[in-house]
Amino acid sequence: MLKKIFNSKIGLILIIVLLAGVNWLASMYHTRIDVTNEKRFTLSEPTKKVLKKLDGEVEIDILLKGDFPSAFKKLANSTDETLEEFKEIAGSKLHYRFVSPEDLMDGTSVTYADTLTVLGVSPINLKSQLKGGEQQQFVYPSALVKYGDAVLPVDLYSGNKTIITPGELNSAEALMEYKFADAIEKLAEPVKPMIAYSDGNGEPTGNNVYDLVNNVLLKNYDLKRFNLNAQPVIPDTFKLLMVVKPTVQFTDAEKFKIDQFVMNGGKVLWFVDELNAEMDSLQLKNEVIAYDRGLNLTDLFFKYGVRINPDLVMDLQCDFLPFDVNGKGQFEFLHWNYFPLFESKTDNIIDKNLGLVAGKFVNPIDTVESDGIKKTILLSSSSNSRIIGTPALISGKENVNAPEDDKFKKSNIPVAVLLEGKFESMYKYRASQAMKDSFKLYGGDFQTKNVSDNKMIVVADGDIALNAFSQKDGPLPMGMNQYTYGSQYQYQFANREFVENCLDYLINPYGLTEAKSKDYTLRLLDVKKIDDQRSLWQLINIAGPIIIVFLFALMYQWQRKRKYAK
Questions:
Q1: pLDDT tier at 31 (50, 70, 90 boundaries)?
Q2: Quick one: which H or E segment has residue 338?
Q3: 3-state DSSP assignment of residue 163
Q4: CB of 518 within 8 A of CB of 166?
Q5: Distances in whole angstroms, Cα of residue 511 to Cα of each of 47, 148, 345, 354
């Protein structure tokens, strides 16, 4: 029956209609199966949640239209693929297009390039040699995300090189989903989470928190300074309390306020130096005594599941400092074991794919038994580290001789811990009725335990969240060593990214850190195998198609002879 229909006059028409229908369905409903191990082409659930909750339309202009080198064209293709996946979820609420930096923005006489400059986005200057001389071309590997009247730039490639290596392209692709989702979430949710920065216990408020305050907290959150001693309660309007390198002892009343903030669902991010050991003293006298600050936080931490020990972590995996090696002004950069470099050995999304985080005079952390509290080690020492007790004399003369490696036998000493679960109040049996009444009088609700799961992060180094200061260039980024700045040993460590991820994990309702921690495996060709098998694969590529055509011709002729021989 079907054979007769397709052999009839209307058969050709039916085939054409069928093919047209299939093409129409394919254009209307786009799907693909992601067979990569790391689910490279699958959006994370938090990203999908952001896109599904859009009320208005998002417009994205990608500044990668033009004749660029191959690496930037690949970056443009990757951007196109990522945003196509976004459009599958957001539907008609998301639109994107590729534009040139020299194009005029809609309804204005201003070019995209001028707008990007105002937004602080710098171009990459591509130079090429032509017959008539040198040609310059400015490339903006960026995008503008617009939602309503608000605009945010998205940096697609954070480097400034004219040639993108496969590794850098891979990293840019891995972060692309997070960067777009983060920009859309910030525009769609104009109300920023409120954060309290504690400043009543000697916490720094000067140039050494410039990067933290201006490039992290004010940029992403509604930041308020908060004095624990002056205020009766920590209001629940604050989503998080941040305590950075306190130097003044906490009173019992202050700890009670923090404890009840936690019991009522508030998050706390601690960066605590248990010991007093500063580089200022070392520079003046070439030695410093590290001793306990007496912050009076041990019992509070112990109740929540950790203990910061008043000891020092030393590590062979460490940063550099300049030392006078002969006492005559001959300075050399040597490893300084009191400036350890930490990495994560877990797959936690806070520090996955993060890189090294730089510390200074860091304390070790022990986890202790606490019912219902899950502990995750975020940062720990290398396999060549040690712990020294205090008080301890730290001298610059230590680095005149190489460290004795046989003393560095400890490994994976924890220095940052994530705590999750239902915390129990330290004041469950300790709070007097007068304390409860006073707390209630100011609007507080005394709780003995969390009603629902809560989180906090304890980091045993206050300097991780601080920045150094250069007399020439002003405040440096977090994770930049002022003593190696401008030298061949200068390196940007991942301190800022670690702080950002901690904050994001604790209070971001969508949990976009999951998108940021994606693994993109870089699959490079085996150069040795290519050289060894070059001739074989050239033969296969050239002769293979010819042989296949020849075989089909033989089969066709054999079929014809068989059909008409009867």
A1: low
A2: strand 331-342
A3: coil
A4: no
A5: 9, 24, 21, 17
* Whole-structure pTM value: 0.78
Q: How many CA atoms are closer than 13 Å to the CA of 31, on its beta-carbon side?
A: 3
Other residues' Cβ atoms within 10 Å of the Cβ of residue 502: 26
Q: What is the CA radius of gyration of the chain?
A: 30
Q: What is the pLDDT of residues 378-420, one digit of tens each?
A: 999 999 999 999 899 988 777 666 667 778 889 999 999 999 9
Do 514 and 501 touch, CB atoms closer than 8 A? no
Contact partners, residue 225, CB within 8 Å, separation at least 6 = 196, 197, 199, 205
Left, alpha or beta for 368 (phi > 0: left; psi -120 to 50: alpha)? beta
Summarised one tens digit per residue, pLDDT across range 96-145 is 999 988 888 887 888 888 877 777 677 777 655 545 555 567 788 889 99
DSSP conformation letters of 494-522: SHHHHHHHHHHHHH-SS-THHHHT-----
Which strands, in side-by-side order, build the sheet including 150-155?
94-98, 58-62, 142-147, 150-155
User: In angstroms, rounded to a whole number, what is the distance separating the alpha carbons of residues 267 and 340?
Assistant: 27
Q: Residue 151: beta bridge partners?
A: 146
Token output for 530: 């290519």
Do 179 and 156 contact (CB within 8 A), yes or no? yes
* Residue for token pair 């064209």: 73
Which one-letter amino acid corresponds to residue 534? R
Cα separation, 38 vs 52, in Å, equals 23
Per the rule left: phi > 0, alpha: psi between -120 and 50, beta: everything else, 59 is beta
> Which residue, among 195, 297, 198, has the nearest Cα to 256 in the 3D structure?
297
The pLDDT assigned to 346 comes to 78
Determine what percent of the chain is predicted with pLDDT higher than 70.
87
- Residue 95 · residue 124 · CB < 8 Å: no
Collapsed DSSP state (helix, strand, coil) of residue 20: helix
Contact, 297 vs 255, CB < 8 A? yes
In the three-class reduction of DSSP (H, G, I as helix; E, B as strand; rest coil), residue 204 is classed as coil
**Is the separation of the CB atoms in 426 and 300 below 8 Å?**
yes
Residues whose CB is less than 8 angstroms from the CB of residue 308 and which lie 6 or more positions away in sequence, other chains included: 272, 274, 297, 298, 301, 363, 364, 365, 458, 460
